[in-house]
Amino acid sequence: MAKSYRIAILPGDGIGPEVTREGVETLRLVAGIRGFSLELTTYPFGADHYMKTKETFPPSALEEMRGQDAILLGAIGDPRLPVGLLERAIISGIRFGLDLYVNLRPIKLFAADLCPLKGKGPEHIDMMVVRENTEDVYAGIGGFLKKGTPDEVAVQEMIFTRKGVERVIRYAFDLARRRAKARKLTLVDKANAVGAMDLWTRAFAEVGSEYPDIAREHAYIDAACMWMVKDPESFDTIVVSNMFGDILTDLGAALQGGMGVAASGNIHPGRVSMFEPIHGSAPKHAGKNVASPIGSILAAQLLLDHLGEQEGGGLIEESVAELFATRQLRSVGTDSGVGTREQGELIRGALRKRVATPT
Ligand code: IPM
Ligand code: MG
């Protein structure tokens, strides 16, 4: 019997729905080609739903998602609502609720002219960032004292657990091994200023001793930002704590050509996981058919990889790469001149051709 996957689709806010439409269409095409079927369930959560119902993200939705194979999310966030309300409820709700402890963010340059750095091409920028995804300041341990008064105190704790740090480091070592490229893993932290990060230093050394074939490197987050710009080829696989990883991967997305091209997977190996573009909801571009859907389409690729459908995922990546290599697409900015829908169609056209004439 043909395989069937149950996928939750959460288009969300702003440009989320239009880019997700392209991600979903591409998934459907690959399913047809590779001979598996998809059962899609679309969820309405986001700003409009909240304004109508006052519901952010009900526990029942999380429970339903737990029973599916994967989740494809568009973008969450809307300037009409308090900062972070929906992001915390929905994005963090899914990351924490499903214990998706790896935030996997490939940084891969598809064509030299996409990169803002001079003299850098695809041979220089190809790395994987493994961002810890369930701890750090995102864990929500904190609060206020005397809120709104001149004596106000605000506290937000950076939480690291031995288990949480160790499991993400282990994932990163395994990934560096699977990639079989430079066979090295760089730990990025701020252990010189944040004493608690000594936990990362020790766990990295201890877990690393089980991977004698993988070289261990280290960079402080500030220096890592500098090296990403000066010498991006020095990185292969990176493991980094949650907030530093958030920042480092926006820099990484810029090296790839912009937020429009960067995708991420929120992963718990072997369990239902969530895939999304790195970009946000970009409300000012919403509904105009100008946002690039490539982040969502590459998120669909990561989703397929997670489901064990690497061949289907590979078809997506090769088609995106071809589009840039042949200069049918020269930028992923909103001024690229190629619409959201049209970019999706170009990629699917290239994909169909690859299948008709395998290289
Ligand atoms: C990301 C985003 C989120 C994060 C926001 C929207 C909460 O920036 O996925 O990188 O900080 O993790
Ligand atoms: Mg971010």
From TrEMBL:
Residues 6-347 form the Isopropylmalate dehydrogenase-like domain. Keywords: Manganese, Metal-binding, NAD, Oxidoreductase. Its EC number is 1.1.1.85. One of its GO terms (molecular function) is magnesium ion binding. The keyword Metal-binding applies. The keyword Metal-binding applies. It is an enzyme of class 1 (oxidoreductase). Its cofactor is Mg(2+); Mn(2+). SUPFAM superfamilies: Isocitrate/Isopropylmalate dehydrogenase-like. InterPro entries: ICDH/IPMDH, IsoCit/isopropylmalate_DH_CS, IsoPropMal-DH-like_dom. This is 3-isopropylmalate dehydrogenase. It comes from Eiseniibacteriota bacterium.
